[in-house]
User: Fold this.
Amino acid sequence: FILRLLLDDSTGEIWAEISGEKAKDYENIAINECVQIERAYVSERRNNIVLIVGEKGSIEKKEDCDLPPVKENVKKILQLETNERANVYGQVERVFPKTSEKSPHSFLMKDETSKIRVVDWKNHQDIKEGMYVKVENARVKENNGRKELHVDTFSRIVLNPPGYKLTEKIVNQI
Assistant:
């Protein structure tokens, strides 16, 4: 299991990777939370510099942080554009059965504007119909003329995000 976090400060942004059992300790870090990373090292992944938090490294949440908040790229389903990465809140309407051992999990998600299929390459098995979810940093792809959200190694799904509920009737159907 590898957890990837996009870190941002006044000098720029960098992806951080935490792997193994240690990664599960940091899954609940949210956008705009301030963290301090110690004893990490830099590596190259897919032509990008990445900060690796290894066995000797640590991440600590900090209360006081003198950085401006990061603007979250939250979109409604109808606003999604192919090939972008976005954060989308919604409700799970239907969970599709896996078609083979190697196929990803997928589900139909709805918000106030439309519905979209979410293809979960990380295979979250605890997603149930009726749950509210936040899909973070998912890639928007097109499949047979329809947009899909793909959850990959740079994405995550937050189950029952605090404060989110559908507020309007769904007007567009798939």
